[in-house]
Amino acid sequence: MRSTLRGFPVAIALWAAVFSAPAQAELKLEGQFLAEAACPATTAIRKPESGPEVLLDVGTVYNVVGINRANGSHYRIKVPGAVPKRRWVAKECGRGVGLIGEGVGRGLVLAVSWLPTFCLSKPARPECRDLDPTSSTATAFALHGLWPQPRDAVWCGVSVWLKDTRWSDLPEPEIDRDTAERLPVAMPGVASGLHRYQWAKHGSCYGAGADEYFDDAMVVLDPLNASEVRMLFTAATGTVLTASRIRAAFDIAFGVGTGKRVAVVCDKAGRIAELRLALDGDIAPGVDPGALMLAADPVEKGCLAGEVAVAVAKG
Asked: How confident is the model over 109-130, as a mean pLDDT?
């Protein structure tokens, strides 16, 4: 790893600082869980149970101590008599009662960039130097980041001094081969180390490992890039789009009301730089992005109108 830091031990310490949180993170939550089905209560969410199966007792109330992420899929509960006592149970197996804490009502924001706008202001960036104006990358939404809410949910378990560390000097997130192949297409900023920064700042608060964090972001991004919203942008390159037209395209693509969950961000020159989608709920393969959006609170329009930039040919 290329680094401006002095000495190998410091680089190791940097790695440890970013990945000090466990892969299966947990947000604190207090309240109770009423079991409505005899579901398994497990020691891990995604791994096979190594010990004897523990099932919930229907009608029994369990104390809740955590959730796997903001508005996540599993509660952490205490099961009397079980070893270990703290176990994971799927939300659909019952009903949460009186839940309070950092794992409730936070939601997510998916930020996607219009790369030609970014490249007009940052032409020296690697993803911009190599951008082919005729490629699909130049006319698709690029992943900026998936941001747990509220906005100050950043740098969870990460040393404060890392905020000023150059992106390329941050450790590479631990992702599998499939994600590593797909991510540079979805997030061209990988060439500049954007994925390292997004994982350290926002992914560290997501409540899951880096592989799941980026996969979940692409679960929502891919349908967006296959939708009427992208068609609207590609057809409007070089012209001005209003926030109202963009929101109307979301209503067509993902259901009436989803447009109210989209904020438009413009740069100082009046070009559309980014869309920010408010989401709420657990992201999983095959999930309906519209349902995630409708579960979130409406947001302000942001920029009322902006130009859809065209990628500039190099040379």
From this structure: 94
CA 41, CA 62: separation in Å to the nearest integer?
Answer: 11
Tens digits of residue pLDDT in 260-311: 999 999 999 999 999 999 999 889 999 999 999 999 989 999 999 999 999 8
Is the link from the previous residue into 223 a cis peptide, with omega within 30 of 0?
A: no
Q: What pLDDT was estimated at residue 102?
A: 59
What is the layout of strands, in order, in the sheet containing 272-279? 141-148, 108-114, 272-279, 262-266
Query: Which residues touch 261 (CB under 8 Å, ≥6 apart)?
Result: 250, 277, 278, 279, 293, 294, 296, 297, 298, 299
Residue 164: CB partners within 8 Å, gap ≥ 6? none
Give residue-wise pLDDT tens across range 32-45: 888 999 999 999 99
Backbone angles phi, psi at 240, to 5 degrees: -100, 135
Nearest to 273 by CA among 141, 107, 162: 141
* Measured distance CA(201)–CA(194) in Å, rounded: 11
Single out the residue of 232, 223, 239, 26 nearest to residue 110, CA to CA.
Answer: 223
